[in-house]
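Regression check, zinc ion case 216:
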Amino acid sequence: MRVALTFDAEHPDRPVGRPGVEDELLSLLNDRGVAATFFLQGRWVESRPDLAARIASAGHAIGNHSHFHARMPLLTDEGLRADIVQADRAIRAATGVSPKPWFRCPWGHGARDPRVVMALRRQQYRHVGWDVVAEDWEPGRTADDLIRDVLAGIRAFGDGAVVLLHAWPASTLEALPGILDGLEEAASTLVTVADLAARDLSAAADPPTAGENPGR
Ligand SMILES: [Zn+2]
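Current build output:
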């Protein structure tokens, strides 16, 4: 059974318990020999170019997570183009890697908006949603909550599940060894979104109700 762990790396719009979580997360993935997919926010990349470069050189797949982490459907056509291109440039400048064709709309908003979909297509991008979400951005979530929900979600979905996680919550970092152990026990194969390219990954999008889940 294939599983794609995806991490959104971004400026969190809530206080983070402690800094340096992203660095430790990368080291952990490296120690366990795991390849994942990282969706990088352009502005975050500009503030942490060293870390963005480390993500790419570790061999993880790279996607674009917009520049300003805005709600894409609220942008004008020109605003959409500018946001997508600005993030693309920031990511390529820091990592030397093109994030195309992988794009994740913040909160999944715009995944089914024809204007957003067209703007992405014009820049050779496609939205990548998710099948499994454990709300790791919620401050009250413990590592045990995340391990349980991620593994149950993967079991329920079956082969090729895309799992939405974030690179900054401490609980995600704490849950990761348990998640990887559980996947190993289930003899799962960890893949990147590139390995699932034949799938309609936008169909995996499960946009939440507008105004909710500010952490995504
Ligand atoms: Zn996000």
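Comparison notes: Residues 11 and 44 are 6 Å apart (CA to CA). The chain has seven helices and eight strands. No diff flagged against the previous build.
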